[in-house]
Amino acid sequence: MKLKVYADRMSQPSRAVIIFCKVNGIDFEEIKVELSKRQQLSAEFKEINPMGKVPAIVDGRLKLFESHAILIYLAGAFPGVADHWYPADVSRRAKIHSVLDWHHSNLRRGAASFVLNTVLAPALGLSLNPQAAAEAEKLLSTSLSIIESIWLKGNGRFLLGGFQPSIADLSLVCEIMQLELLSEEDRSRILGPHKKVQQWIQDTRNATRPHFDEAHNILHKVKTKLAVQLSVRANSEMESSIKRVLPSKM
Amino acid sequence: MKLKVYADRMSQPSRAVIIFCKVNGINFEEIKVDLSKRQHLSEEFKEINPMEKVPAIVDGRFKLFESHAILIYLACAFPRVADHWYPADVSRTAKIHSVLDWHHSNLRQGAASFVFNTVLAPALGFPLNPQAASQAEKLLSSSLSKIESIWLKGNGRFLLGGFQPSIADLSLVCEIMQLEVLDEKDHSRILGPHKKVQQWIEDTRNATRPHFDEVHTILYKAKTKLAVQRSVRGNSETESSIKKLPSKM
């Protein structure tokens, strides 16, 4: 039975899993779980992942969620995957685990919360929280600095001095790509100072083309849509504040 | 050269690594990095872990941090470690990774933030934040419920239906043990409803005795100390509010 990948390409870890499968020629069926329609909370999907999150996979009798765990599993279970994605060497593997663990409480928390609280919240029925956004930006910027000074220190173009990408490169780069949804101003303030990160994103993209671009298409479409919604909201707010301020006879 | 473990037993992931080494007869040297003295921020320790966090290990020329990564490394690099801690089977390993990944953004975030914002912050030079504490309590309580309804569903006494503990049991139980420093009221409100979690803590403790108890001793000492500090602070606050009363009374 073919591997099933439950995903929404708007979710950065979903994209990482999809790109990984495509780059490594893993035969899979992509099943869309639309977050904006809250399909991840349906009783049907909870049978797949009781936590109500994407991505999740079903491989024969095995059900699995959490994207890092999925990437490691796929690298181990599918024989066609090249060693550099998740090296057999215990020490190199340990370093990859270290990056992935760090990701959870640093880059991911900063990036996901910043994008949610500056752009995505209204589309998901939540309100934007500028204070949470400001806190998230600090964590995000520190995380990008640490990627440059610690994780990208080394000879190769990739994390941990690698000459070829590992699952950690793919996972972290997909996280940062979510910043594509931000306004130009926010995006360039945050990513601008980090030239080494920009180069590394480019290198990871080049190493996983054309699948990388194809899986990220959705972001550019959604960005345009969100910008329109924001400007509509801004206009209507302006109108209502004009109405409030201006005397009604004018 | 002997394995070096840089740790502070007040840190829950430090305790998990220390207990793991002791239970599995791994010969190691424990090097204390005192968080309350901010030793983790020293130049010397930055050479070991540039992220300035405990635990970290040095094994020969190899340096490693992040406790889950350390536990996995130790399970693989030291041949005497029994299979149940980190099974060789790809599917069972995958499930353990899934629990550990979940831990990061759920149980750990809730528990660590709640303990910090109700008890530990003053000792580390920060103010207590009741709003952050109440958000953390929600995440913590829902995490404990999920442990019961999802991770402890199965035949065995341990996570994922295991009959013996894995590194995930040890890591998560050490996290929950941090709640021992809370005052009784908070502790019983949060843990009280979760009988299955309580039984699982007991089972993990029994499976890793006497090391589990020995490594957790520090928490009970810290709890007494923190309670004294709190009551001193409480009294001085009462005094200062009394002083606010009109001086002739």
UniProtKB/TrEMBL annotation, chain A:
Its EC number is 2.5.1.18. Residues 89-226 form the GST C-terminal domain. InterPro entries: Glutathione-S-Trfase_C-like, Glutathione-S-Trfase_C_sf, Glutathione_S-Trfase, Glutathione_S-Trfase_N, GST_C_Theta, GST_N_Theta, GSTT1/2/3, Thioredoxin-like_sf. One of its GO terms (biological process) is toxin catabolic process. It is an enzyme of class 2 (transferase). It comes from the Eukaryota. GO terms for molecular function: glutathione transferase activity. It catalyses: RX + glutathione = an S-substituted glutathione + a halide anion + H(+). CDD domains: GST_C_Theta, GST_N_Theta. This is glutathione transferase. It comes from Juglans regia.
From TrEMBL, chain B:
Keywords: Detoxification, Transferase. Residues 89-226 form the GST C-terminal domain. Residues 1-82 form the GST N-terminal domain. It catalyses: RX + glutathione = an S-substituted glutathione + a halide anion + H(+). GO terms for molecular function: glutathione transferase activity. CDD domains: GST_C_Theta, GST_N_Theta. The keyword Transferase applies. SUPFAM superfamilies: GST C-terminal domain-like (SSF47616), Thioredoxin-like (SSF52833). One of its GO terms (biological process) is toxin catabolic process. Pfam families: GST_C_2, GST_N. It is an enzyme of class 2 (transferase). It comes from the Eukaryota. The keyword Transferase applies. Its EC number is 2.5.1.18. Belongs to the GST superfamily. Theta family. PANTHER family: GLUTATHIONE S-TRANSFERASE T1-RELATED. This is glutathione transferase. It comes from Juglans regia.
